[in-house]
Amino acid sequence: MDITAYLHTLDVIVILGYLITLIFIGLYASRKVQKSGDLFLGGRHLRWGNIGFSIWGTNVGPSMLVASASLAYSTGVVGGNFSWLAFPLLILLSMVFVPKYLHTQISTTPEFLSKRFSESTRDLLSWYNLVAIMILWLGGTLYAGGIMISQLLNWPLILSVTALMGVAISFTVAGGLVAVVYTDTFQMVLLIIASVILTVFGIYEVGGVEKLICSVPEDYWHLFRPASDPEYPWHALVLGYPVLGIWFWCTDQTIVQRVLGARDLRHGQQGVLFTGWLKILDTFIFMIPGIACFVLFPQLEDPDTAYLTMVTRLLPSGLVGLVIAVIIAALISTVDSGLNSLSTVFTLDIYAKKIKPQATDREKTRMGRWVTVIGGIVSVVLALSLSLVEKNLFALFQSIISYLAPPMATVFLLGVLWKRANTLAANTTLIFGSILCLGIGIADLSGFPEKGFFPPFLLMSFYLFAGLCSFMVVLSLLTRPPQRHSLPGLKAIYRAQQYSTTTIWWLWGILVGVMLGLYILFN
């Protein structure tokens, strides 16, 4: 799809105006970067609004804009579960993990495991984190972004991927997490506005909400599918999504890094709560346009073009440019977040710990920027490799997460909730689990030994998680208990902070009520 045929002068002005504004925001934020703590954690001065928008913006990448509309075009709102089932995991992050993270004053999630288990656990997790960031946040996002840029401008995939990475590197190298969070906030406000406009235009063109509801198969409006569904059976979602969610929302460096930069516990927890409310929007503003596209353009050859079809066919001049700017925003937001996390983990957990412990603050900042550039180049190669996998974008992203999640989810969850878990069990689970999960994941994505050989990826993720949890528990019980003192309990942490959780629990309770109401409505 060559979108240049649909662009008018006003659209070009909007796109250029957006890019200039974004560059100004990034340069303004970069003035505050004077030391490594500013580059990696924003100086630990982030407020709840910036945290909430930035977490949501990191999650809302190309997989939401294009892949969600594509899935909605083909199957309806079932993909909304990947947004709405996040709320229990966000509660877990806010009320259990955030207090422990901020109390221990960590800069990375591997550093947290070094305090719970040992330095050897930190080393293993650091390398695992690097692999996960490279594959999912950088390789996967670049691939999805490259497809979109190719559709927009009719460029070759390699040129689209390279151009996108070049822009993301420039923001991350200059401003670090401060620039990432500031631009995320600006971009996400634009994203909400543009997506709401597209949703309203889509419903209007269909003929109203009632016409939209009646014009598609009834199961398009069901969040849960029958157990016989080949890809998204209800029990796979209920069992498998929490595994993905524990890793993605509670332990993944790219998500957690925003919370680690919070100015205090209250801002950290409220930022996560704000993300929970923003996640409600996902189904309405990312999936409804896909369903409307199914009604208006039922003969699309490739469902992945549903989002851009709606943009180019329905929106007037000027708004087309705004939505293209938003697409660029979502791409840059996710890629620069991944780059910043990559440089943080390598610089603080590997370079400053193992390679050059005496490194000065200036040397760590310089190394972080070099890692950003090198990681970006490697990610371009990974993105082009993913083009060989025969899956739609949504399934590809969720499949990758499903096979990355079990080892990390197991070690973090048992490490936080079970004092008897020891270092030997944690390290063995990380090593054995990583080899097992990545091996099965590569086999499944490549169709070996044949397509359909493995269960749906969500069920497979649950089976792997259950097996690794059992393995870690048994090995912990068969070996010596941990010698070091466990991390302080939540009551002790809250008591030390002199912080009442009553208000935040009430706000979470309201969100739970809203989510339960939505699930009743859509079933």
Strand and helix layout:
Layout: H1 9-30, H2 36-41, H3 48-59, H4 62-75, H5 81-84, H6 86-103, H7 109-116, H8 119-153, H9 157-206, H10 209-214, H11 234-251, H12 253-260, H13 265-296, H14 306-314, H15 319-355, H16 361-386, H17 393-417, H18 423-445, H19 457-478, H20 490-497, H21 502-521
Helix pairs in contact: 1-9, 1-15, 3-9, 3-12, 3-13, 3-15, 4-13, 4-17, 6-11, 6-13, 7-8, 8-9, 8-15, 8-16, 8-17, 8-18, 9-13, 9-15, 9-16, 11-17, 11-19, 13-14, 13-21, 15-16, 17-18, 17-19, 18-19
Folded structure, characterized:
There is one protein chain. With 523 residues, the chain is mostly helical. It has a single domain (3-390, 501-521), classed as Sodium/glucose cotransporter, CATH 1.20.1730. 77% of the residues lie in helices and 0% in strands. It has helices at residues 9-30, 36-41, 48-59, 62-75, 81-84, 86-103, 109-116, 119-153, 157-206, 209-214, 234-251, 253-260, 265-296, 306-314, 319-355, 361-386, 393-417, 423-445, 457-478, 490-497, 502-521. Helix 9 (157-206) crosses helix 13 (265-296), helix 17 (393-417) packs antiparallel against helix 18 (423-445) and helix 18 packs antiparallel against helix 19 (457-478). The protein is globular and about 65 Å long. The two termini are 36 Å apart. The relative contact order is 0.18. The model is unreliable at 35-42 (pLDDT under 50).
